[in-house]
Amino acid sequence: MSNSLVDILSPVPVREFIQAHLNDDPLALVLQSKKYPELPIREIAAQIQSRKKAQSKLPEWYANQKIIFPHGVSMEQCSSEETAKYKASLVEGKTVTDLTGGLGIDLYYLSQKFEQTNYIERSGELQVLAQHNFEALGVNDITQFHGTAEEYLKLEKEPADCYFIDPARRDDANQKVFQIEDCSPDLNLIIPLLLERKAEVLIKLSPLLDIHLALEVLPNVKEVHVVSVKNECKELLFRIVPDYEGPANRIAVNLMKKGKEQFTFSESQEEMTPSFSQPLNFLYEPNASIMKAGGFNAVSNAFAVNKLQRNSHLYTSELLIENFPGRAFKIIAQTVLNKKKLKPYLPQGKANITVRNYPLSVKDIRRKTGVKEGGEVYLFATKLMDGSLAALVCDKAQK
Predict the structure, then answer these.
(1) Which residues contact 229 (CB under 8 A, 6 or more apart)?
(2) Chain centroid to CA 256: how far?
(3) Which end of the chain is more exposed for a tag (fewer CB within 10 A), N or C?
(4) Which of 328, 309, 311 shows the shortest CA–CA distance to 319?
């Protein structure tokens, strides 16, 4: 039997079995493999696991029964449909080349913005898988190259208008790495070659990466996009433009069902002093992208909200700011984390607790106060501008 997932999982009886057992427990299927001697049950079980992940992550691909998903790390690290479409909105031109093709999610959506598309992948298994999936999606005009990014660039005849790179973020021992110098391919070697071609470069990096350190390493960065999905930070995108000089703008994006929250700020805007005050009528918590992008002062000034304290990163205002990029709350009371003091505000003994610049963890607070998780009350434990510790009891504000 071939080692290729495409050969193993493409036959019609196998695809039909997968569809019929999508809701089965994959482990149970493996344990019952003797019941299906004619089928590759282990590969089928792994494919069912991957398809379950793809259902919410890649709904368009999931809906196509001919699509075959990789198992393990490749499925974990691939972009979601939402983030791939966002990338495609950032660049345009005649030719785009994905130097680290992988499963091909990003390139599939990028290809819809370009006339010519090149897919480069060093893994033969992934390349075969991507080719099969592109054909299943009706995309037959993507040029493929099996080899490393460095090998491809040595042979390239015509430079592309845009290059996309999603470096592998695992070392030889398959352990996760986050620093640029630990990723593959080596961006310090690749980027100068691409800048010589006068091409734009879009780089996807781990959301755990320190943005300041990355900007010290990467040249000609015009924009840093911090991309979250439903307020969970998913990836950092660095857009490199030839000959650009100057500080990079930060674009904090939160992709949600109802649309997207987007906040753009510059280095100089973040350096401006914000206003401070004690808690007023409303409380605001910036979304995950703004927090990661470091737009703490910029968001305060842009939306005319006061910071509670320099390092607390919570904001307040007299009147409700309906378009604030994050969560908004109505402050019901200001108190302290004392079981007796909290009791009048928590009739069910429950609250959703958030800690910002406070010496105790959420777990410690629950142990100290006996407050259980859940309910409709929100409790923020934080430090105020006068240095005092406070517990702000809140309800969700209706934007």
Answers:
(1) 80, 82, 83, 254, 255, 256
(2) 12
(3) N
(4) 328
Helix (H, G, I), strand (E, B) or coil at 287: coil
Structure tokens at 192: 């100068």
- Locate tokens 């680290």: which residue? 100
Q: How many CA atoms lie within 13 A of 377 on its CB side?
A: 19
Residue with tokens 């999936």: 133
Q: What is the mean pLDDT of the chain?
A: 93
The token pair at 316 is 């307040």
Is 202 a residue whose pLDDT tops 60? yes
So where are the chain's domains? 5-69, 76-246, 270-396
Where does 137-186 have alpha helices with state H? 149-155
- Element spanning 48, H or E: helix 41-57
Q: Which structure tokens are listed for 97?
A: 């080349």
Residue 174 pLDDT grade (very low, low, confident, very high; cuts 50, 70, 90):
very low
Which residue in 233, 238, 242, 297 sits closest to 265, CA to CA?
297
- Go through the chain and tell me how many residues it has: 399
What is the H or E stretch that residue 144 is in?
A: strand 142-146
Measured CA to CA, the distance from residue 224 to residue 236 in angstroms comes to: 7
Q: What is the pTM of this model?
A: 0.92
Domain 76-246 has CATH 3.40.630.30: no
d(CA 24, CA 41) in angstroms, rounded, equals 12
* 3-class DSSP assignment, residue 298: helix
Give every strand in the sheet of 95-98, ordered side by side.
142-146, 116-121, 95-98, 162-165, 200-205, 232-240, 221-229, 249-256, 259-265
Amino acid sitting at position 195: L
pLDDT digits 0-9 by tens, 56-82: 999 999 999 999 999 887 788 889 999
**Look-up of token digits 């149970």:** 28
Instruction: Name the residue among 105, 40, 45 with its Cα closest to residue 71.
Output: 45
Report residue 237 as tokens. Answer: 């995108």
pLDDT of residue 1: 38
What one-letter code names the amino acid at 299? V
Distance separating alpha carbons of residues 109 and 114, to the nearest angstrom: 10
What order do you get walking across the sheet with 315-317 strand by strand? 306-307, 315-317, 282-286, 326-335, 389-396, 372-383, 350-356
H or E stretch at 192: helix 187-196
**DSSP state at residue 35:** G
Query: What phi and psi, each to the nearest 5 degrees, are found at residue 254?
Result: -120, 110
